[in-house]
Amino acid sequence: MEKKYEFLDSFLNAFPAVMALLVPIFFLPLTTEFFQFNKLALIFVGTAALLIVWAVKMFLTKKVYVVKTPLNFAFFVLTIAMLLSTIFSINKTTSIYGAQGRWFPGLFGFLGLVVFYYALSANLQKTKAISYVIVATIVGGSISSAVALFGYFGIKIGSSAYFQVPNFTLAGSTNITAMVAVLCAVISVTLLMYSKNLPDKIFLLHAFVLNFVTALLIGTTSAWILLFISFVAFVFFVPAAKIIKENRTYSSILTGVIIATLIVLALPSSRDLVVNKNYPKEINLSLGDSWVVVSSTLRDFPILGTGPSTFYLNFPRYRPLYLNNTNLWNVRFDVASSEAVSVVGSLGIVGIIAAIYFTFRVLVFILRLKGTDESVGISAVVGAGTLVTLASFVLYPATVLSGFLFFLFLAIATSKSALDEKSKDTEIVFMSMSALSPVSILGSQYEAKVETFQYIVAIPMIAVSLVGMYFGYRVYAADYFMRQSLEAAQVNNGAETYRLQGRALNLNPRKDEYSNTYAQTNLAIAVNLSTRPNLSDEEKTMVQNLVAQSIRSIRLSTEVLNPLNVSGWEIRAGIYRTLIGAAQDADTWSINAYNAAIQLDPTNPQLRLALGGVYFAKEDFLSAGNLFRQAVQLKGDYANAHYNLAQTLVKLQAYADAQREFEMVQRLVPDKSEDYKRVSEDLKILKELPDVAGVQSSQPTVSELESTGSKTKPTEQEPLTVPDETVESSISTTGENLKLGEE
């Protein structure tokens, strides 16, 4: 390449190291989700920059080049599977862009990382540049581990609210932080075995200790399994002579550190001093529970699954009933226990075959790297790193960061293989206009063939990058305005909240979460405005418009944008429920919305409790009691359901049964709590009724004995609520003008 264009090569070789350093630690408190969304934005901007510089280089040098790799067909197969699954997805928007907070592996996120892989592997053409990427990864991961350890030991690194969270990490997840720590530990110790420079060895030794300790302390069983896998990878790729003979001193130090750390964590006396027993662990769905959901999904959608990133829509529909007997009974999981499990339901049989084939090809490619670089050790490092990141998808759900690290190491492995003269299946090849098959540039006689081809390739690359950045800006700006609106809502600035959410929807109208939030904001402002005395005609009209906009937004969300999202139907039911007493047929609309939610989440006792509250407000106590009893059947130790059932039985004058339900609540709620006092007062009032005097307490049924057993509370309870306490509306001043049936 001509010297005047060397700055392009310098950028293409140096910029990947910058991304490797920044992505693990990058976050911004400017969007609704601080971590994964901003990491993905950084990756897209970085990939666009690589594409543009790559295109400019091809344009100036008049040479179109790509990387030939044995993984090309595997990438093609997996991409086709993702594309087909997205086309037939139960929610295309989610499958394209990813779910809220779970942006990867949406189709765009996946394609963005595939483009990043090809742009990086084709342009990282120096061994030294690959070394910089590896070192940058170690530095970024070590910073992430250090911050996680600060939080683990209660050291706050800032005064902002998010820094006060005990398990704050730069990765946004303690599990992924542990995974990054394992990765950095294995590549540090592998590089240490090949390093000749004493300062480098000292740095790598400290990096290993830091990341190893982090993985042990904040990681769970999955992190420890990944540590074992990393050890196996290290032993496989690093020759025994390197470990035993050439690095005897450092190997002894490492062995001593590992043994000492394990002893400290194993002995009760030292363990109590080091281990933070109050450190919050992530709540994850177990492998068994995940399999129940994905296998049920595969049964109903066998060929292509339900689409990428749709687990959060599948979980409520296929949620196992026995979860109601655990403390996870009221948690809606949006991701399976691992990405390997998630693929079963999201991509179906076609996706499973494609993923297995892709994994097989990657393993074959990586294992061939063994022994190809005995002096520098880059092949061993990238081989071990790629295996660890690949294994992380079997142990953890995929995230933007784990996906980036996998594609990063796969790309530098490809680059390293292409630089190896002995490699027969990986090389940088050039494309000509006369033949679309790769041909090598051997002399000036070929220049005429590629003279115009660079325009055909480079211009679309630049155009795609610019268009992608434009739409990326709209998506990012929308989330920024939504975040600003939430901050305005926290200080009760309704006008600013309304304005900012409107801007967010104008920029990204396809996101159902935005429509849900906008609907709630419109209703909240309407409720607040309607409580003012002596409303003018203009203010009454404004209230009507706000309520109408709230209804339009929530109908758009539930009927068009994401009809299978139970959260949207819950919000819709709550909006109509708030309008009871202010609008005709609001109770009917609320009932219909709750029924739709129940169909999407059939084992959820809270939905039946809420629907029963609507019937209770209508004084349809038989229907209310039936729903409360269904909630009790779904969750036998659900104190709130028992309490609402008791209130309904009082209305139905079934006093003996009501007394038994109240007494059941007493056994379920904590002694001396406000709820206990509340139900005790209800019991006292009940026993003073003339028709109850002398009635003896009924014996508990077998199911009640099974659900309670003793005074031990099997699951956490929510505060007790009376059936109709959330139904009362405060916008009755405009009720005569609202006709929900005519919307």
Explain this structure to me?
66% of the residues lie in helices and 1% in strands. The chain has 743 residues and is mainly alpha-helical. It has two domains: 3-446, no CATH class; 540-742, Tetratricopeptide repeat domain (Serine Threonine Protein Phosphatase 5, Tetratricopeptide repeat), CATH 1.25.40.10. It has a two-stranded antiparallel ribbon with strand order 1-2. The longest helix has 38 residues, at 453-490. The protein is globular. The N and C termini lie far apart (67 Å). Residues 439-450, 702-706, 708-712 and 726-743 have low confidence and may be disordered.
Through-space gap between termini: 67 Å
Beta-strand content: under 5%
Task: List unreliable stretches of 5+ residues.
Answer: 439-450, 702-706, 708-712, 726-743
Q: Could you report the average pLDDT, rounded to the nearest whole number?
A: 88
Q: What is the domain total for the residues?
A: 2
**Strands across the major sheet, in which order?**
1-2
